[in-house]
Amino acid sequence: MGRIAYVNGQFVRHGEAVVHIEDRGYQLADAVYEVWALFDGKLADAEGHFARLERSLGELRIPMPMSRAALTIVLREAVRRNRISEGLLYLQVGRGVAPRGHAFPDQPVPPAVVITVSPVDRAASEAKAAKGVKVITTPENRWGRCDIKTVGLLPNALAKQAAKERGAAEAWFVDELGFVTEGASSNAWIIDADGVLRTRDTNANILRGVTRRTLLDVLRDEGMKVEERPFTPAEAVAAKEAFITGAGSLVLPVVAVDDKPIGNGEVGPVAMKLRRLYIERARATAV
Prior knowledge:
Distance between the termini: 24 Å
Shape: globular
Order of helices and strands: EEHEEHHEEHEHEEEEHEHEEEH
Structural class: alpha+beta
Number of helices: 8
């Protein structure tokens, strides 16, 4: 069976899925998105993703396309039709189709909805985590509302490409004060020389990561010390360990920044422990 997508009320073959040429998400990045990790065919961190979706839509004054209950049914049906147990679900909601113009349409139009589902090789992901990944740094050049999960990701895409060309898996944005804000598609963490976990606070211009939020809950339950305060790339290199979090990466150890090894350049025990604890929590609470 081939992949199945959901586009504006219909399930269609993935290769036949299309959007209108005047879809504002396509022309103006006037859309938001969410990505759920799938464990055993269920949505991980569901509440956090729904809450962030509703907040992002509210910030852009795009109405929810349907109730949360109805959307949950559609998302689950997309997973079922694709017969995927371990994977990722992508949801995009845009303002809709209207003659091209920068201002909102004079008459409201139905929001545009696209859903795709793709498999993830968990064994390969675990092997990647056990080896660790490298990151590069790049100047922060994104807009001032990174707390809204919009599809306007060109700076992120360019940063990811730069990372790929340098043999790295992620790029960390660095602000004008010299602090790491977050990754191109993840939140950034270190375990500093004192053994304290540190990640940027959400009052800064970063995305309110759902995986990040769940991991904070895990850390609290484990009694581990965490501080939501910034760090520099130099502090990351001097740290005991570093890692990134996101729906795609889950908890992924980082072993080098700009080709400078962190510690002995190998994956540390705390990051791997937190990866295991996060996955256990996410799998147990998926819906």
